[in-house]
Amino acid sequence: STFLAKVSIIPLQMNEHRDDLKLAVIQNISDRKKLQQKASQRTKELSIFNTFAKILTTHLPTDRLIQETVDMLASIMEADQAWIYLIDERTGELYPKARYGIIKDTDKYEERRTSGESLNKKVIVSGRPLLVENAPEDPRVLHRDNEIKSIAGVPISSKGIVMGVLGVGSRNAS
Asked: Cα 59–64–69 angle (5° rounding)?
């Protein structure tokens, strides 16, 4: 079987008539590596919560607060793009509230539609997160950016009502 290992070579001293021997010790460190990854993930999560807490306790205008949240999310998640789209209460259309790493006219390609075709609208209609691992080939992704390989969208809800979508896009798969 294949596993992560730590290999130690220990020289053994012999008398003058024999060749020196070495003892090889192979230690399976797969579990240790998994624990390190879990600890790293928890540290990242705590960093996100801490940063959100700092942003939310500042006295910034709402638009700037939302933009800083999107910027921070992109940075922490190492995403190439991030966004918040909200539902216009009058028209029912989605409009961009904050974006990171996105061309400014993206919304005319993806969101100015009345049907529930786009990825963001699928998230809103279902009320559930959505992960796209092969964005260039997925029909739910209407705006094609061939550099972006994976996209995740999460509904923004208040009191059980979906108000918008928080999303991230990455050049890396998953």
From this structure: 95
Compute the average pLDDT of residues 30-45. 86
pLDDT in tens, 48-72: 778 777 777 777 888 988 898 899 8
The helix (H) or strand (E) run that includes residue 36 is: helix 30-56
Under a CB-based contact definition with an 8 Å cutoff, are residues 33 and 56 in contact?
Answer: no
Rounded CA-CA distance 94/105 in Å is: 14
Beta bridge partners of 86: 95, 164
| Confidence grade of residue 112 (pLDDT, cut at 50, 70, 90) | very low
pTM here is: 0.65
- Please tell me the distance from the alpha carbon of residue 171 to that of residue 77, in angstroms, as a whole number: 12
Q: Which residue has the tokens 């053994």?
A: 12
Q: Which long-range contacts (CB under 8 A, 24 or more apart) does 108-115 make?
A: 109/142, 109/143, 110/142, 110/143, 111/85, 113/142
Tell how strand 150-158 and strand 81-87 pair up. unpaired
